[in-house]
Each structure stands twice: as structure tokens, then as C-alpha cells.
Amino acid sequence: MQRVACLALAFALLTGKAVLSAGAAWADDVTDEMERARQLYAQGKVSEAKQALDMASQLITQHKAKLLGDVLPPAMMGWTTSDMDSSALGSNLLGGGIAASRVYRKGSESCLISVVGDSPAMAMVNIVFSNPGLAAAAGARIQRIAGQRGLITNDGQVQVISANNYLVTISGACREADKIAYAGSVDYDKLGRL
Fold it and tell me: Facing residues of 100 across strands?
């Protein structure tokens, strides 16, 4: 194995080409766009340079959205789960940001866990979580869930805001206790590192 790695490194050094893993190949797309933007800017092509930077930014956002799905918990015992869905939100939805979600099922019950972040709208959401009076006026109950600020809305949603302003929402046709259990099993440590 070491010999293969040494040969790959030698090839890269001799040809000036990098041999990349799948993760590094993605990162190279970003750096390629950034380099393209730098070159366009140096040529005085400011609009095209901005488009290239916007493309690099979008590629980073898409990658971060995929990473966001890693915080979603596995299905609890007796439950099944669907594939994770992640996306970079357009600026017309919550002002932009990233989101990931997954559906969990047990018989006729289903819970949807969604996580949204990197959005200007989170500032408004944070106001409600920071002010128990506002939450109570909206009919919500406040409680700590996995050490995070959480609330249970009058329509049965369980919402948790992480320390770095990601909103976790558990909704659907399942018991409140299951929603709270799922809210508590989200990986808030990993979420805090995004």
C-alpha cells in the first residue's frame, strides 16, 4: 500500500498533477473556481470573476448541506428511516441557507426531522427561543432538550435551536415523547462544528 502511495506522489510531482481522493476532488472544484475568479479579476472581467466566486460559494454551501445530514440520528429501536435529503436553500426561502431532513416510521406513525441553518431567518427564530414570554404568547412550552434550548409548539412540533443557530424541527404524526427522544438524539456536538 505504501508503494502505491509513493508511486502516486512521484507521478504527481513529475507531472505537476495531483492524484486526488473523492473528497479532495470536490475541494479542487472550489479552488478551481476561486482561481478562475482571480484570473478573471486580474483581466478586468469583474462580472465574470464575481460569477466564478458565486459558483465557488455555492459549491461550498452544497458540500456543507451534505455534511448537515450527518447530524441526523439513526432510527430508534422499532423504527425505520428513509434516505437523508439535503439541499442548499435559495435566497427566496428563509433568506437562503442549508437544510437536511429525514423521515422516520414505526407502523402508522411517522416523524420528520429537519435541520435548517446558515440562514438570516435564524436571527428571528432565536428571538423567540431567547424570550420565554414570546414563546408562551405563541402557545409554546419551553424546555431543555439534550442541553439545548427547545420548545414544544401548540401544534405539536418539537423545535430545538443549537448553540450555533441551527433549527432542528421534529414534526409529523408521532407521539410527543418520540419527537422529544428524536430531538435529543441529534448530534449537537457535530452540528456545533459545522
Answer: 86, 115
